[in-house]
Queue: 3 jobs
Job 1
Amino acid sequence: MGYTFPPAPQPVLETIDSEDLFPVRRVFCVGRNYAAHAREMGKDPDREPPFFFTKPGDAVTQATLIPYPPQTEDLHFEAELVVAIGVEGADIEETNAESHIWGYAVGCDLTRRDLQAEAKKMGRPWDMAKGFDASAVLGPLYPKDAPLVQGAIQLKLNDELRQSGDLSEMIWSVPEVIAYLSRYVTLMPGDLIMTGTPAGVGALGPDDSCTITIDGFAPLTFTMVA
Ligand code: MN
């Protein structure tokens, strides 16, 4: 027996210091994980446990030219640290979370903010606001060599600084996010977790360029194309 049609290619991420490609499975994203960003979205950051949404694995791209998506007039950038899972686990203890991490990358959670605002107003899912094609723009994966608990995270739009925060400002740390998420799903090798964005999110249009930097990583630069 074969397939009714050829299976889709495996989404992958390039890795630093290796020819090997990281096979992407699922993409989980943390909502409102920096207090100042929660406030700019009109929420009280102190009263919420972490919540999650997802993007399809094949929404991940390492292209430098990103097609401006359809059905939006308010596409937003969100600079984020991305955690790559390398070891399966359910109900992971926070103190053991590091052992499930393969590595980290710089990422951008592209968001159709107008569709998200409409979904929030109507009490509808965020999928079409968050999970569209090429909505997870990522740099190469860095194998982990130490816990990542601090470091500047910044985004420049056309060379203008728009987002500037520090990983230490996350409301829920990387180990806490892994522990919490693994209560809901069994985390699997290939899963990615986008850990939320600092304040300063805003719109980017066709022809705009974004550069995201996180201490210790090469900058991630991409340009939107109409
Ligand atoms: Mn985000």
Note: The mean pLDDT is 96.
Job 2
Amino acid sequence: MKNIKAYGAKSNDADLNMMEIERRDILANDVKIEIDYCGVCHSDIHQVRNDWGNSKYPVVPGHEIIGRVVEVGADVKNFKQGDLVGVGCMVDSCQECKSCEDGLEQYCENGMTATYNGKDEHLGGHTFGGYSEMVVVREKFVLKVPENLDTKAVAPLLCAGITTWSPLRQWNVKKGDKVGVVGLGGLGHMGVKFAHALGAHVVMITTSPAKAEDAKSLGADEVLISKDEAEMKKHANSFDFILNTVPVGHDTNPYVALLKRDATMTLVGAIDEVDIHGGGLIMGRKRLAGSLIGGIKETQEMLDFCGEHNIVSDIEMIDIDSINTAFDRVVKSDVKYRFVIDMKSLKN
Ligand code: NAP
Ligand code: ZN
């Protein structure tokens, strides 16, 4: 066991501060990673502030982790010292249930182990995330990161990337489809990039007219201001797929009205109550779906796709001591479009 430096919150109304946490000694199947960068996901804020009512303190957030392998266990086959690697939202699962067999560890029937605030089977207590110097992770949950990309900007792919990639693939978004992405934040900006790269006609659906130009430069073909009822009406019944990243409970009916017959809207943001009128689904055989991150195999495919197509996130770099301000700015939608922490700043 080793004590290392981390940044976390001791309660739901406390700022994040420097603290010490323990990491296990590596086991035969483990990879030890020195963390270079960690993205700041809106989920980090939900967890620190206990928005979902299940937080365990202290919370050390961070599930968009990029680093270098510093040591591997005796049975590790796919990684060696010096490799550039990533860790996303999961660090373990049972590996025996149907979901794990299908490569969908995020839906593990025995409960996957979340990178932070999950049950720590080794040290007891709960897991601590990537706002820290180092992490020890079971090999199966470590991703290979293409070396040709800007490493800092790869970090958000580990959550924002896979969370948007997975539903776009699941619902078979393809060339020529009209795809809407609701909410231009960390997830939304990756949704736009991926839908564009898959050949779709992409419509950014936003509450913020000021983001229109950015949306277009990220790959949106059109921008639709969701508060403009007349414009929303013009797009009624025309979308093949909508990815909804709104981070809070909301009225989904105006978005469902945009779907074509038999089309789907997938929620990824609102882990919360949403309003839906059955009639909006029934008249048109429309579907409202949900999606949680993505499996390990699919995450590797997404990273490889990004390597081939030169796709990374748009980021603002920060030092760890700016994290509390960064949290407030994310809540105000004031970030373009993901904060990434330079974890070297934790050592200073
Ligand atoms: P974010 O950067 O804060 O972006 C959310 C965007 O949604 C905002 O930029 C804003 O875009 C829009 N928005 C905010 N409040 C809204 C409201 N009341 N009504 C309509 N639109 C609103 O957040 P993020 O990091 O992308 O995360 C989005 C959500 O996904 C969070 O709740 C996070 O916890 C969740 N999440 C889920 C998964 C999963 O596996 N399902 C994985 C990661 C994150 P505009 O200004 O363009 O309207
Ligand atoms: Zn996340």
Note: The longest helix spans residues 296-309.
Job 3
Amino acid sequence: MPATKPQRKPLPTSKSTRTVAPTATPAQPTIPAWHAAPDTTKAWKRLMTLAKTQRSMDLRKAFAGDRGRAKALSADALGIHLDYSKNLIDRSTLDALLALAEECGVRKHTKAMFAGEAINLTENRAVLHIALRAPKGSSIKVDGANVVPGVHEVLTRMARFTDAVRSGAWRGHTGKRIKTIINIGIGGSDLGPVMAYEALKDFSERSIECRYVSNIDGEDFYEKTRDANPEETLFIVSSKTFTTMETMTNAQTARAWSLARLKDESAVAKHFVAVSTNATEVAKFGIDTANMFGFWDWVGGRYSMDSAIGLSTMLAIGSEGFAELLGGFHDMDEHFRTAPPRKNLPYLLALIGVWNRDFLGCETVAVLPYCQYLHRLSAYLQQLDMESNGKRVQLDGTPCRWQTSPVIWGEPGTNGQHAFYQMIHQGTSPVPCDFIAFAQPLHGVGSKSTGEHHDILIANMLAQGEALAFGKTAAEVRAEGTAAWLVPHRTFPGNRPTNTLLCEKLSPRMLGRIIALYEHKVFVQGSIWRVNSFDQWGVELGKVLAKRIIPELTGPRGKSAAKHDGSTESLIARYRGLRGR
Ligand code: F6P
């Protein structure tokens, strides 16, 4: 792997992005002048003009009139082919979008991130998930200290622990081998690990099963433990803060569940490990900090699947597999950092997204992997995208005058085809789609009579892209002899935008590349939208209110001091009534 050489030059003007010791309330930052608001740029105005005509672009004509279109509007890197030619853009749109990224300072912002500047302005923190996959020997500094050796120290401890569990050297309290690993975590401490475990099942050690408990709903814990043997079960309590209500409640329940069988407090040391940035809380919970794997406040929860939060991933695919995964992330980091924007996959995916969202008014994006192993990918990307860029104010606190994160959703193909594709083809709202597939299957399922399943799968994906782009005209429907009154029902409008990511083969390395591609896509979009992609204040209010309501559901009748609106009061009363309280 090539060594990382992050840009070290400090930003020219900004006080705001300098790394300083964190304080409870950071001083109000000054936004660097290069971080322009998108709608003040020349490119934005040009794109507004282009959108007037291109929103009614006819993709049939566009392809017929430009034989080089598919080639011109596609890019290749690291075994990933991105075809974005079936979007309502032409080469001039692409030029204007690239100019927009430049005018919004994406390049400078990228340099600031790679240099460890505190670009998470509202929390005064560096944003350095790229350091989690930096090769040994490289240097990335936060507050003057190189963080890479610390990253590799944790990786080495994780690898030692992984080897011990997989080889059977690490045993449970009663001497039995660990067969079930249950990760307790939520949000970024769950979605990445679940997604990766499912995605990399074919590379995993099948004698150990990983399960994931996230929901505070006791159904989750109950179902994941009902057939597990406490003597053979290891819990990983994963929480960046180690204060998240769901995770701490589930962890306490897990402790009680284990000890009910093992009947000895000292068993906790053999059946519980923690992944966190908060050693004090880990110790308070009763987990020996020798069994804790740390990470750092410069890793956002939703950017943490390649930190120690990925311990269950490493246990599943082994330390070498995990190193491959990290290698894939790093490959994409280097591509993002060095490739010209016109050939840069994260830039291209981001710019198409900005075009669809801000200029064509698309409100959602469907991520549609034609790969069953990636069945949790869209759930993972939902947090990555929507928690990062679901913001309504700019870095300086003024309202965004443009749209930010779309709704991200999706399911694997071909299942989705038999559920919601109807709306994508013929509904009233256009839904841009990302199709993702691998040319090489990981299995040989199929027979002479059925044909290879994989070919049928890929044919379906290509057919969907074709149908969405080119549709079926009323004349074509009529020519099939369809009754006149049925023609509108059977007509497909076409001109529905899609990207196709055709990748070589799913592997830990390829998964790392794909995830880093989306991480950097989100970064580029957040830079253009001038929002802080790295905080999540929007999740706080609900957490506080829930804490207030809990005693009102459980405490003595009429003792509640809290006042709510009429609706909430009456729902609380109804719930209490139904529970006989
Ligand atoms: O509530 C949102 C959030 O803070 C996410 O950003 C985070 O991934 C999740 O909760 C879990 O947080 P933690 O890892 O600290 O338990």
Note: The chain is about 45% helix and 10% strand.
